[in-house]
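Just curious: can you write whichever protein you like plus the matching structure tokens?

***
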Amino acid sequence: MKSSIGTNNLKLDSSGLGYKYVSASKFEDYERTTTSANLYREDEPGYLNVRQEIGDVLLSFGQLEIELERLIAKFLDTKSNSKGFIVTRLMSYSAKVALLNELAHSRASFKREPIKELVKRLQTCGKIRNIIAHAKWASMTADGFVRLDMKTDKETADLQIRYYYFDHETFHSICLVMAELQDELMDLSNIVHLVR
């Protein structure tokens, strides 16, 4: 996911989301001077319906996870989803992705590279979902940064707070990627009974 502001001053994590660190000693000043209540008021310039955007991503992720469960169910029994749903009902998302990987590789006719790439993209979606679900959205700044987590700088021992960048385009591209993956999983569900 490329941020629309450009990435020359941002680092990109493994999922492609842009972020930056702010020293914990400066974060109160940073948030006090940059946090904008205007982001939550429809009548203000710069309004971003964060609640709607977050909801869209989480709904897209939920739909993706349902298709993942259906595909696993098809691998386990092409006539009924019952066995698959029993197996996956208590599994985490990452465990479901790992199971799909094992099931697909157990079928000689499934090519390894496309499955490997699919699994990687599913894992990335899980990471993005967790970032969005666990971000401190009340800390969102006027320029689109939201606090997520902290780390200690190994060289300076300074506590660093990580802020991720989100705008409408970022949210929209995340939803598109999840929808494309959902379609791929549906396509695989339709052919899994043909491939042994």
Q: What stands out?
A: The helical segments are 24-34, 50-76, 82-88, 93-105, 112-134, 168-191.
